[in-house]
Specification:
Length: 311
């Protein structure tokens, strides 16, 4: 597969132009349609993807493993317990060694700097499967889902309500700013997105005409919105403060009352896993407005496009 993205790392959506992001999304859509029609895409025949996991996963592992197989390649699962990283081998040495064996690396981990360092010292493409700072694969696949459901992305009013200081919000800010989608984030004091991420997104938004709004008012964020998005309030490593987080974030729950203020034909999105009756009520996530399982499926198609274009 000929691609101007060949050899590129996929660490942050901010590293890509709007045209490059659309190349990935459109490739994913084409691959999805061909798969549904029973046609094969096998541009990675004989290629091997190493998949490093220091953070557990359902969707990331399965979607990448099935995806690389559908592309003709092989996925090699590498848990933290099976690597010398946990015994003190440096990221730099690990990157250089894996580059001799593999054709690409996907890593899902905690510290974002580990992905940056892995990419810096690898001679093969590195894909960020998730860090505590960013989740670019999910955000890019969300663009595909929005495009499919609404027929457009530019000018879409996108609202997130809940804990705004997380990897999903940060990557969605980058995604929206790059493609001209308005992004509104509602969260309480102490839960706002990283100010540096917001500033960077605003720089890109100034070029595309997207509007970025950070507010503490959930109703203001969802008023007339085309998309309403939620994520879990307690991520891995935050379990000790769960009860206090629930108390502070409950006014930001996506429920029937809040839904009265969204735009006509709006859809509900969630990257999963979901905690029903916490960040979202069952009637919303299981209602006709919900597209969460289409989102989950699109992760695989979008990641196939990333692998095919970069590897």
């Amino acid at each position: 597969m000929s691609s101007g993205l060949r050899g590129r790392d996929f660490v942050s959506l901010r590293d890509f132009s709007a045209e490059e992001i659309w190349q990935i999304v459109e490739t994913a859509r084409a691959m999805k349609l061909r798969l549904k029609a029973g046609m094969e895409d096998r541009p990675l025949e004989g290629k091997t993807l190493g998949m490093i996991f220091t953070k557990p996963s359902t969707r990331t592992r399965i979607s990448f493993e099935v995806g690389i197989w559908q592309l003709g390649g092989v996925g090699l699962f590498l848990s933290a317990q099976e690597l010398q990283l946990r015994r003190g081998e440096t990221i730099e040495d690990t990157a250089r060694v894996l580059s001799r064996y593999l054709d690409g690396i996907m890593i899902r981990t905690y510290a974002h700097q580990d992905v940056v360092d892995l990419a810096k010292h690898s001679s093969i493409p590195v894909i960020n499967g998730l860090t505590d700072l960013l989740h670019p694969c999910q955000a890019a696949s969300d663009l595909l889902t929005i495009w499919e459901k609404l027929g457009r992305v530019r000018g879409v009013k996108f609202a997130f309500t809940g804990d705004g200081n997380n990897n999903m919000v940060h990557s969605l800010l980058f995604a929206g700013a790059k493609v001209g989608m308005d992004v509104r984030v509602a969260s309480p004091e102490g839960f706002h997105p990283d100010p540096e991420i917001v500033a960077q997104a605003q720089e890109d938004a100034a070029r595309t005409g997207a509007e970025i709004l950070i507010t503490d008012d959930a109703r203001e964020a969802v008023e007339g919105a085309d998309v309403v998005y939620a994520d879990v309030w307690t991520s891995m490593g935050q379990e000790d403060g769960k009860e206090e987080r629930l108390r502070v974030l409950m006014p930001y729950q996506v429920n029937g009352d809040l839904w009265k203020h969204v735009g006509e034909g709006a859809v509900f999105m969630h990257c999963l896993p979901a905690h029903r009756e916490e960040e979202v009520t069952t009637d919303v996530i299981d209602g006709p407005m919900s597209v969460v399982f289409d989102q989950a499926e699109n992760r695989m198609h979008l990641q196939k496009a990333i692998m095919a274009l970069t590897m």
